[in-house]
């Protein structure tokens, strides 16, 4: 008797050749990718049409003499050659530098506010304060600017009424005499020592930056080519060629004299001292160089006096706690493991120690993000100044910034092609600064 052993049923896929299985897999993946690309197609199309296409047109129109409507004549590099000799545009960057330094200081209230929120132990109160910080975001930006314009009004503004009620107006009146006196006292030293040696206070600041940069060594200098490119651009703007070459030679000579760690520390001390003295001289001789005679009657015109425009712009936004900045810092703080805090407490680290040894170092990624946003905003934003001071930037163009100058060239003088060239120069500058931030503002976690 013969027994028939049933054969196992073979899957049809086993008999398919490898090439057929690969083709089936590719078809399935293709269907998946097709669906995904169809889902994001509207977003990509919107970005190409409304974001990238206008920016590409900006590059193209930078080579034309264009009035924004009908007249469009090819001029090649004429707009860029005119840009290099546009003293009013380049002088506007001095105000940007002042605002940039002020905004670096104004970042700290948001950092401290985020740390305070993070340390609240009650989830109920933490949620309440987060909502309280987010609520101001519902106020339209234009309304916010109009509130601040009324705030600075000389007759009915809150600022003057508050200063008169607290007696601070009398203090400002005293400073209106004291600060110009300090500037006059330091004037001979600046004119007889600083200017002949460094061409200006800005030249002294430039030399300090070169000295500090030369401590990197030759390999560091080669790797930091972006920083050196930006530094040379700033030097060409601040100094005539003989002084620029002399500063570079002096900085390289000082940097190459280091032989030991003590010598390196001395060179860093020299560079830091030059920068500190220059910043102090800028504060004492340039910010309040002459009396305004605005505080004696108790109604100073903050936006109508050329000497008060810049302080008003710096004070804008007080107490300088930005909602978006606080949320970004808070997100970085919440990523810190609780084990780190527990280990710090076991080691006896107090509140201030946690601030400087844990929270601030581990927030540097978020600080870098806000630093980039702040720099881009400072260089490009002009809405506040346009609303408060007009297209001229206030009395004697003291509030003129590059973005406002570009706006006035386009919409007041109808030189749209030249305004596009101005925009491209700002784009290159912002790109260089962003690369520097991403390269040097880092944290090793």
SSE arrangement:
Elements: H1 12-15, H2 18-61, E1 64-66, E2 72-74, H3 78-84, H4 87-106, H5 108-119, H6 123-134, H7 141-151, H8 158-166, H9 168-198, H10 201-214, H11 217-223, H12 225-238, H13 241-256, H14 261-285, H15 309-315, H16 323-334, H17 338-346, H18 351-362, H19 364-380, H20 383-389, H21 402-411, H22 416-440
Antiparallel strand pairs: 1-2
Helix pairs in contact: 4-19, 5-16, 9-10, 10-12, 10-13, 10-14, 12-22, 16-19, 19-22, 21-22
Describe this structure as you would to a colleague.
With 445 residues, the protein is mainly α. Helix content is 73%, strand content 1%. It has 22 helices and 2 strands. The chain has helices at residues 12-15, 18-61, 78-84, 87-106, 108-119, 123-134, 141-151, 158-166, 168-198, 201-214, 217-223, 225-238, 241-256, 261-285, 309-315, 323-334, 338-346, 351-362, 364-380, 383-389, 402-411, 416-440; strands spanning 64-66, 72-74. The N and C termini lie far apart (78 Å).
Order of helices and strands: HHEEHHHHHHHHHHHHHHHHHHHH
User: How would you classify the helix and strand content by structural class?
Assistant: mainly alpha
First-residue to last-residue Cα separation: 78 Å
How much beta, percentage-wise? under 5%
Relevant terms:
445 residues, 73% helix, mainly alpha, single chain
What is the compact description of this entry?
The chain has 445 residues and is mainly α. 73% of the residues lie in helices and 1% in strands.
